[in-house]
Amino acid sequence: MILDLFAGPGGWSHALSVLGARDIGLEWDTWACETRARAGQLTLRADVAAYPTWPWVGRTRGLIASPPCQAWSMAGKRLGLVDQPLVHQAVADLADGRDTRERLLSACRDERSLLAAEPMRYLHALNAVGEPEWVAIEEVPDVLPLWRQYAQILRNWGFSVWAGILNAADFGVPQTRRRAILIASRVRTARPPEPTHAKVAEPESLFGAGREQWVSMSQALGWGATDRPVPTVCAGGGPSGGPEPFPSGSRKALSDARDSGSWIGPGSPVGPHGQWSLRSNSQTNATVRRIYEPAGTLFFGHRANECVWVKEDALPFAEHTPGEPPVQESIRITAQEAGVLQSFPADYPWQGNKGQQFSQIGNAVPPRLAGHILRPHLSRDDFELAA
């Protein structure tokens, strides 16, 4: 079997289903388990840190893990960085078969920090019988030093290992989400997947087709299906012929924006209707991306991390009332839109209230990135994850 620790709402699991495989996920969050159930994924509702390792010994081909990132994330207090020496110690002890978690946990500033050491507890137990065949682990970039410690241990156990940073946008995800990834294998040379996309499209060469341009938010959401990068008019049934991005009864302001031609693409003149962008949170240093670009990293789970569509009045500055800033409209992103920007299908069955759904989405690995990481381990060369 393929064991998925901290399985969340099913980012890895959905990628595996596209590849014709299945995992069994360990997940504690009730609503993430409900989402997984509605998506038809095998799940044990369990605390990864408390669950025994012996049931998996002798039957595990692959190990996947995406430990909770809240202790390390830029969106939080980042106490994981303070606790990092303790986490390194826990990994070293667990790799030697010593369980010092209780003592180390009492010294941690954030109890979630030590969860990043949990995959080593499972790996140590499985290694005793020559398992697993392969490993894939994902976290926020600041955890990379920990993955490098894992890498050295796994190499000593006979694995080929690669650890580094991957940008989800390089693999067709409409979001520049950077993640620390560890890939290990006993049967092949571990290497990162080959990027399929680039910030600027690459022409065909003697070595084959070039990489496509990063997928924009408008492309992923179906806002303006056209040969142009982003149309100036993109309402369904209009000149672009694009599909309506929202179900009936959705927010009129965005619909009016499409009808009025306020989607402005690269190089297009800014019209009187302004431009729509996605603001990643309410903080002053929030990432703001235009609709014809990929989103920035989506953070959820806290009021300050609320993502909103923002339209700035594009009238020339001289036409604004002196002393007043340009008029700005904002509309909260929906869970369906956020899921699509994580590369989940538009009809993915998110469960729970809005806050619970957003929390699941923000913590999930993008399925399209996961698929490219997993494909070599499943001997599948025809991977194509439908939007």
Summarize it.
With 387 residues, the protein is an alpha/beta fold. It has helices at residues 11-18, 30-38, 79-95, 101-105, 118-127, 144-156, 217-221, 252-260, 335-341, 354-363, 367-374, and strands spanning 2-5, 24-27, 42-45, 62-65, 134-139, 160-167, 178-185, 197-198, 212-213, 275-279, 288-290, 308-312, 328-332. The longest helix has 17 residues, at 79-95.
Architecture overview:
This protein is α/β, with parallel strands linked by helices and 387 residues long. It has two domains: 216 residues, Vaccinia Virus protein VP39 (Rossmann fold); 120 residues, no CATH class. It has eleven helices and 13 strands. The strands form three sheets. A seven-stranded mixed beta sheet has the order 3-2-1-4-5-7-6. A four-stranded antiparallel beta sheet has the order 11-10-12-13. A hairpin with an 8-residue loop joins strand 10 and strand 11. The two termini are 27 Å apart.
